[in-house]
Amino acid sequence: MSTSAVATTPEQALSHVRQTQLLIGGEFRDAAGGKTFDTINPATEETIASVAYAQQEDVDAAVKAARRALERGDWAKMDARDRGACLYRLADLLEKHIDELAALETLDNGKPIGESRNVDLPLVIDVFRYYAGWADKIEGDTVPIRGNFFTYIRREPVGVCGQIIPWNFPLLMLSWKWGPALAAGCTSVLKPAEQTPLTALRVGELALEAGFPPGVTNVLPGYGDTGEHIVKHPDVDKVAFTGEYKTAQQIMSDAAPTLKRLTFELGGKSPNIIFADADLDAATQGAFIGLYLNQGQVCCAGSRLLVEDSIHDEFVDRLTQMSENRKVGDPFSEETEQGPQVDQQQFDKIMRYIEAGKTEGAQCLTGGGRDGNRGYFIRPTVFTNVRDDMSIARDEIFGPVMNIMRFKDFDEVIQRGNDTFYGLAAGVWTRDLSKAHRTAHALRAGTVWVNCYDKFDAAAPFGGHKMSGQGRELGQLALESYTEPKTVTINLDG
Questions:
Q1: What is the DSSP string of 223-248?
Q2: Do residues 6 and 101 touch, judged by C-beta distance below 8 A?
Q3: How many Å apart are CA 293 and CA 458, to the nearest integer?
Q4: Where are the strands (E) in 293-446, listed by range?
Q5: Would you say the pTM of this structure is higher than 0.90?
Q6: Selected catalytic residue, list 86, 161, 186, 299
Q7: pLDDT at 6 over 90
Q8: How far apart (Å, rounded) are the C-alpha atoms in residues 320 and 313?
Q9: Beta strand pairing status for 447-450 and 271-274?
Q10: Residue in 376, 451, 373, 438 with CA at minimum distance from that of residue 410
Q11: In the chain, what percentage of residues exceed pLDDT 70?
Q12: Catalytic annotation, pick one of 95, 105, 228, 265
């Protein structure tokens, strides 16, 4: 049960801004050089707060604290079941402060308060509870080998983890990184996105209250150079990154000298396929949410909507009407369905793609422009007559821009669905069970949703093929990337 009041205005949300310093070794402190940066409210374009900006000296201190906790501190001595208890307590504290955290998320990110409070945070809490249950169940194996030997495999923490998260789901991405890492016994140096540092700092404070020893969870706000210092640091054992593929390519290069373990969850240009035999009401709603959720700022957004010929026109009419009726505005209003884009850079990028779509010959049926005169609001936009070679059909726009394309048959839609260098997710809508399985098996994507979209669960692994990443978040599979197997062989004759 939450004990904080629900914020209904940015001014009320500002009262929840508690931490703007770096969290290093269990203490909040200014950056060593005193450097700061402003975090901006995307709905008003006003400064929320100045936040400490971590530099190389701060990264060194955080990594040192994480190493000490990993090898010599209370964390190193803690039983696995007690690690799980810390995760359970953190989940309980997040639930206790759910309204406060939702207000901070909406203030800093711009997503509607209803999504922050009723979608993101329940998932965050569930992820921590899921991995709390895993902490004492990471087991090894015994292996029969030739001779009189006893051989077993231990699974040990991979070590100090550099974790770099994006701005679109700040709290959720934090939970996806911390959950498996902490359950496995690792320590973390986390860099939140420069656009959205506030909730990570607050959760860092709650982690200390939950009983995580100093140095286990370190939070270093900053820009790209902060992340670069983390990636290049010789005493960081693993880097987990969520973001765009060009940054991941740079991380691979920077991590090569130390052969760090790497996992990436990157972007997508996901096909969402609507067959003529689909439940039209369910498919329309699923396609709508599959694109517009979180202002379209979702890596797995169903941004290539492929609709079978015979239902195309009706489908376009339905989606266009829904888009025109979507309420854009104040993210603290419970009536708002779509808030602002996260910042000016993202706003400008989306507007460039909208203009490119018009120039390249796609038909803009609705939207296509700014909403209001303050904040980074864009009207929900629907394009039809979209060709596969257009930039709006090839590139990840990361905004409320829906592209609708026709297809004629199964073979065509599979070929076109896979015609992308991404491979994160896909959607399939059909009443034909055989067709659903054939489509899901044929699509090259890490997740395929059938007659649903954006269905996430802490137990279901998530990640991509091709340029959409490597490794998996969530589920048991995520634990594999945070553990190292060690083989021990004992001579029983000795």
A1: -HHHHHHHHH-TT--EEEEES-HHHH
A2: no
A3: 19
A4: 304-308, 363-366, 381-384, 401-407, 425-429
A5: yes
A6: 299
A7: no
A8: 11
A9: unpaired
A10: 438
A11: 98
A12: 265
